[in-house]
Design goal:
alpha+beta, Beta-Lactamase, Alpha-Beta Plaits, four-stranded antiparallel beta sheet, about 55% helix
Length: about 375
């Protein structure tokens, strides 16, 4: 065993047995020439029993090796070194283990080397990662991010100029200078082509709309306010009824608005001032209910068919409408016919209550009338 230890530079080669739960006995311990004849301090002798060098945690792997077949491998962190141990139970003829043959190989230097190499590799990976990331970001900014921002700015500017624009000649898209020779440049060309096609399409639509509007405008346009009249409302209701028959769960609502004190205004200041009040209320209704059609269905009555965005924000829009009326009333710089007063009521289509648009109209009219009564009561 001494020769094996000498030849293979083994840290420890020994046979031991377990005395009890926390003590072991050294049966044989191999030593090299230096340990045996030069530095003899700490040499183990036959029959040496441990004192406090081992605890239950240290003895546990030895006990496991005693119980298992074959070689058991484990690591030991001792006060002398960090060893990798291979242990084999020695058994009697009846198979009962009586001792353990163990070999300890010092892996302290190996662990330190692995730790150093791991640290070096980690640092190298981090540095390479930073270099790669910075290189990619620079490349991406030049070839993707910056060109896309230019493209976005061009599209946003075009959208800003185009919103509500009826003059086709002003629908001009300024293509940004993008020469990336990749998909971004192809996208830029596609956007340019799309805007040119859109311009031609809009021209055709506007031309057709102008002819249609000229013919239909006379029939559905209210001469005083410029919004759609009762005929326009009836046509819109007919379309709505058709849609409702196909989709009974359709979402829409109706707002009724009535100009208060119109007769008194006409009698006191003349019909021309009353007309100013009507037009002022028309403008207010169209301003508040921007996304819904507004109709003048009578001398002092207006109807709004709530759809989309206005339908979802109706409570807010009603408050906005009434707040503006309150501002008019408090503005001393306005003439009496400019300080318009109006009653407003609304309701939503309910398939459980309503069978047609007229049912919704009636309920909205009732809500408007309740508002009018409350306003008269408060005025008195």
């Amino acid at each position: 065993m001494d020769g094996i230890k000498e030849d293979f530079d083994i840290h420890y080669l020994y046979i031991l047995t377990l005395v009890d739960e926390s003590h072991i006995m050294s049966v044989i311990s191999a030593e090299n020439y230096y340990d045996r004849y030069v530095d003899t301090e700490g040499n183990l002798y036959l029959g040496w029993i441990s004192d406090d060098e081992y605890d239950e945690e240290d003895i546990a792997p030895l006990r496991r090796a005693m119980e298992e077949e074959g070689i058991t491998f484990f690591e030991q962190d001792t006060e002398w070194s960090y060893d990798y141990t291979g242990a084999l139970a020695l058994r009697a003829e009846d198979g009962e283990p009586y001792a353990i043959l163990a070999v300890d190989v010092d892996i302290t230097d190996i662990r330190a080397l692995i730790k150093d190499r791991t640290m070096e590799t980690s640092v190298l990976i981090i540095i390479l990662g930073i270099i790669f990331t910075m290189t990619f970001l620079i490349w991406a900014r030049k070839n993707i991010t910056a060109p896309i921002l230019l493209l976005e700015e061009g599209v946003v500017a075009f959208a800003g100029k185009s919103h509500g624009q009826r003059d086709v000649t002003l629908l001009q898209y300024e293509e940004p200078e993008i020469h990336t020779e990749n998909e971004v440049e192809l996208l830029s060309h596609a956007v340019t082509q799309m805007t040119e096609d859109m311009q031609g399409y809009v021209k055709d639509i506007l031309s057709a709309e102008e002819k249609a509007d000229q013919m239909e405008g006379l029939a559905i346009k209210d001469a005083l306010t410029g919004i759609r009249n009762k005929t326009g409302y009836d046509r819109e209701v007919a379309k709505l009824e058709k849609t409702l028959s196909e989709d009974p769960e359709l979402s829409f609502g109706i707002v009724m608005i009535d100009l208060n004190y119109l007769k008194k205004m006409n009698d006191t200041y003349g019909h021309d001032k009353g007309n100013i009040s009507i037009k002022r209320l028309s403008i207010l209704a169209c301003t508040v209910f921007t996304h819904s059609p507004v109709f003048r269905v009578g001398g002092d009555e207006f109807v709004v068919i709530l759809t989309g965005w206005d339908l979802e924000r109706i409570e807010h829009l009603i408050r906005q409408f009434n707040d503006i009326l309150s501002q008019y009333a408090a503005d001393e710089s306005l003439e009496p016919w400019e300080k318009i007063s109006a009653s407003i009521g609304y309701t939503m289509y309910d398939p459980k209550k309503d069978t047609c648009v007229e049912d919704v109209f009636k309920r909205a009219d009732e809500e408007m009338y309740k508002c009018k009564q409350e306003m008269h009561a408060a005025r008195e």
